[in-house]
Amino acid sequence: MKPKFFFTGALIGGVITAPMIALMYLGNQLFDLAFVPFDVFNWMARLLPGPVITFGIDLMIDTLRFLGVNVADTAKIAEQIMAVSLYFALGLLAGAVFFTVFKWQNVKANLITGIVIGALFGFPAIAISIGMGSSNLSPLLNLVWLLVLFLGWGVAFTKIYGKLSRYETTLTIPSPKQAEEAPSVQKVDRRTFLILLGAGAATITVIGAGLGALLSREEEQNDSMAHDTEGPEGKPFPNSDDPVIPVPGTRPEYTPVKDHYQVFIELEPTELDGATWKLPITGMVNNPLMLSLDEIRNNYEPRNQYVTLSCISGRIGTSLISTTYWTGVSVQDVLADAEIQEGARYLFITSGDGFYESVPLYLIYSDPRIMFCYAWDGNTLPVGHGFPLRIWIPDRFGMKQPKWITGLEVTDTYTEGYWVERNWDETAQIRTTSVIDTVAVDHIVEKGGQQFIPVGGIAFAGDRGISKVEIRVDGGAWEQAQLRSPLSETTWVIWRYEWPFQTGDHTFEVRCYTAEGELQVEESTESRPDGATGIHSVEETIS
Ligand SMILES: Nc1nc2c(c(=O)[nH]1)N[C@H]1C(S)=C(S)[C@@H](COP(=O)(O)O)O[C@H]1N2
Ligand SMILES: [Mo]
After folding, report:
1. How far is the centre of ligand 2, averaged over its atoms, from the C-alpha of 397 (Å)?
2. I want to staple 389 with a disulfide (CB 3.0 to 4.6 A). Which of 176, 207, 344, 405 is the partner?
3. CB-ligand 1 contact for 383 (6 Å cutoff)
4. 492 and 403 in a common domain
5. Does 385 share its domain with 481?
C-alpha cells in the first residue's frame, strides 16, 4: 500500500464531498431536507459523555475569546463550522480508504462498485440523520434524497477512479510507439480532466452553498421583521413615567425579541409542529392529561410577567442576559388538573432536543408565578426560544428551564438535569450581579456650573430585588447611583450615576445590594459551577 494512493483517494474524496455538502445545504434551505453534517455532529454530542462535551465547548469559547471574537454571537457558528469540517474529513477519509482498497485489490470500477461504496459510506450517515429527525419532512423523502446523494457520491468516485487509472496505465507503460505519437496528448488529457473535475466540483459547491446562504439570510430577515421593539400588546411600559432616564449607551431596558440571547444544545433550534404537538402529563397523577397548545391557552388563566433571563455560563458583564414579556399559565393550575398523587416529589420535563430537567414540586407549590410560557412580547413563542412551550422559574438561571417541552412526568425519584449531569449547580440560583454598560463621555451634563459624566448600566438579582447600586472611580469611595424602577420584580434594574468630571485614565467599578441589603459577592469566580461572581469594571480615558 502506498501513501500516495491514500492521498490521491483523500483528494478525490474532498472533490466529491464538498459539492455533496453544498447540495445538502441547498436542499435543506429550499425544502427543509436533512442536513447530514449537523445531524452527525448532534448525534455524536448526545453519545459522548458530558464532561467531554463541556470540555470541548469551554475550549472553543476560550479559543474564540483569545481571538477577540464576541462569543455570544459566534459560538454557534463556530460549532457549525466544526460540524461541517468533521463531515468533510469523513468524506476525505472515505475517499482515501476506498481508493487504497481499490488499488490494492485491483477492483474494477463500474456502476456496481460505485453503488456499493456509496451505500457503505451512506448507510450509517443516513441512519443517523433520519434517526435524529431534524427534518420536518417525511423520513421517506429524506431517505430518497440522501440515497441519491450518497449513491451519486459512490458512482462519481468510481468514475474518477476509473479515469485516473486509465491515464496512469497509459502513461506509466507506454509502448514506444504510443510514447512517440501522443505523450503530450495523454498528459494534457489527464491534467485537463483534473482541472475540469476540480472546476466542476467547485462550481457546484459555490453555487449550492451560495444559494443556500442567500435563502437562509432571507429567512433571518423575515424573522426579525416579525417582531417590533414597542411595548408588548401596544401597552405602555409600567415604568414609562419614571424620572430616572437610562444613560445613552445603556442596553435597552426591554430587549427586542430578535436580540434576545439564545442558548441551545444542538446546532440549530428545534422545530416542533404546533398543530400536532401535545403535552402529555403522566406518572404519579390520578388524571393523566394530553394537552394541545389551544387547550393550554384556553383552559387556564393567562399570566403575564416581565422577565430577565440569564445564562449561568456567562462571565461578569456577559451579554447572555435579556428581558422580555412572558405570557403563559401557572404550572400550579395545570398540575391541579392532573391531580398529583401523594408522595410525588418532582416534575421531570423532557424536550424535543433531548434536553431534560427536574423541578421540585415544593418549589412549584410555593410559587404561582412558575409558568408554562407560550408567548413572548405578546406573540407566539419564537422557534429559537422554545416554541410551542417552555417553563419559567423565577430566580433560576436558564439551564433549569427547558424550552421545546414535549413531556411532563410526575415522579418521586430525582433525575439530574442535562447540565446538572454535566457538573453545573443543582439549584442554579441567579447570582446577584451589576454591570457598567457605558461611561458616556459624549453626554456630559452640567449642573450648577459643574460638569458630570453619566455612567449607566444594569443590576440584577433574580426575584430578590435591587435596593442599592454603588460606583467607585479609581478605588475611591463607593458612591450611590440612582435606580430606575424596574419593569417588574423579576427584571434587571437600570441605574445611572453622574460623576464629577476629571480628565485622565480612570477605572470605574460597580456593585449592588439585594432588596434585603445583601451585597453581591465581590470576589471573582468562574461561571462553573454556580454562576460567575465579581465586580465589573471599565477603563476609560477622559480628555
Ligand atoms: N430544550 C432546551 N431547553 C433549554 C436549553 C436547551 O438547550 N434545550 N438551554 C437552556 C439554557 S442553558 C438557557 S440559558 C436558556 C436560554 O433560553 P433562550 O435561548 O430563550 O434565551 O434555555 C434553557 N432551556
Ligand atoms: Mo444557559
Report:
1. 7
2. 405
3. no
4. no
5. no
